[in-house]
Amino acid sequence: MVEKLELKRTDVKTIFRAANEFTAVWIKGWVWFGTHYIRGFIGTVFSAAIFYFLAQFIGPASSPHLQAYKGDYVSYVILGIGFNPLMFKCLGLFQAVFWWGEAAGRMEIYMTEPGGIKGFTLANLIQRILGASSFFILYLLVGIFFFGINVHGDVLTAFITLALACFALTCIGMIGAGSYVCLNIRDRTNPLMWISNILVGIVSGVYFPPEILPEPIRNIGLIFPQTYALEAGRLALIGGYGLADPTIQRDIIILLLYIAVFLPLGVLVIRRAFRKLEREGFLSRW
Predict the structure, then answer these.
(1) Who contacts 19 (Cβ-Cβ below 8 Å, separation ≥6)?
(2) How many CA atoms lie within 13 A of 261 on its CB side?
(3) What are the residue boundaries of the structural domains of the chain, listed by start?
(4) Residue 280 burial by Cβ neighbours in a 10 Å radius (0-12, 13-18, 19+)
(5) 30 near 37, Cβ under 8 Å?
(6) CA distances from residue 256 to 164, 165, 196, 246 in whole angstroms, order as listed
(7) pLDDT digit string (tens) for 106-125?
(8) How far apart are CA 101 and CA 120, in angstroms?
(9) Arithmetic mean of pLDDT, 1-21
């Protein structure tokens, strides 16, 4: 029989104040353990180099499928590899916070703090978004200055489509993470992330144009928000197309539909998850 605990009530101002303090501590730790990020930078350079030389080898064969992107396979693949981890990170934001809170034994501590679990969660979301965004920017800078990728198009349009895709994926991830708590799942497997990790690289056009795939497989990619973000982001950055382009408009509308459907569902599930955490301490270490 699970003992019911008193539900902690706190105001929004306290939650944001706690999140600000937690984030400041994280930034200090980030600076202190800078060698970790130096290793990440070196790994990023070598990763980009591998795909740069691979693109030099297979690029001519893919050119007929890249007319909208000026036949530039190098920029196509490096942007895809930069976009995809950021979007995957957004899909798993809430799940990663809950996992870390449980594994590190932090849930008990933050349940007694003024900001509560909500302050802890908000701070961790900010930290993970900042970390993922910094590595994404780093990857782009490496691509631009070391490998000469073409990003002289409409940066604002690319940013809008990527932001919408990240928000849509975060909403979908809220459903998966909330279900993890509400259904008392102790296994850390997230089916949404598992499926996305396997399929998106193939069907969404991360590494190669989806047009080369058989139609039944290509149609699977239409399920994933990443497909539309990759297409619109590349068209904007490489092809120079803006918000007036019909393809980009279609992709943005589809991403907005994802948000309209999954945002209310995600908020509903994650609110129930928070209430369960606060009442029962489901993710406590002991």
Answers:
(1) 115, 119, 122, 123, 126
(2) 10
(3) 12-280
(4) middle
(5) yes
(6) 7, 9, 19, 15
(7) 666 666 666 666 777 777 77
(8) 9
(9) 58
The span from the CA of 173 to the CA of 129, in Å, is 14
Contact present, 282 and 181 (Cβ < 8 Å): yes
pLDDT at 76: 87
Q: Hunting for tokens 């105001």 — which residue is that?
A: 11
- Whole-model pTM: value is 0.81
Using CA atoms, how far apart are residues 105 and 156, in angstroms rounded to an integer?
Answer: 41
Distance (Å, rounded) from C-alpha 136 to C-alpha 161? 15
Q: How many residues does the chain have?
A: 286
Residue that is written with structure tokens 């990003």 in the block: 151
Q: Are 220 and 199 in contact (CB under 8 A)?
A: yes
Cα separation, 201 vs 193, in Å, equals: 12
Query: Residue 123 has which token pair?
Result: 């701070």
Spacing of C-alpha 8 from chain mean position: 30
First-to-last CA distance in the chain? 15
C-beta of residue 93 within 8 angstroms of C-beta of residue 171: no
CA 133 to chain centre: 9
Burial 99-134 (b: 16+ CB within 10 A, else e): bebbeeebbeebbebebbbbbbbbbbbbbbbeebee
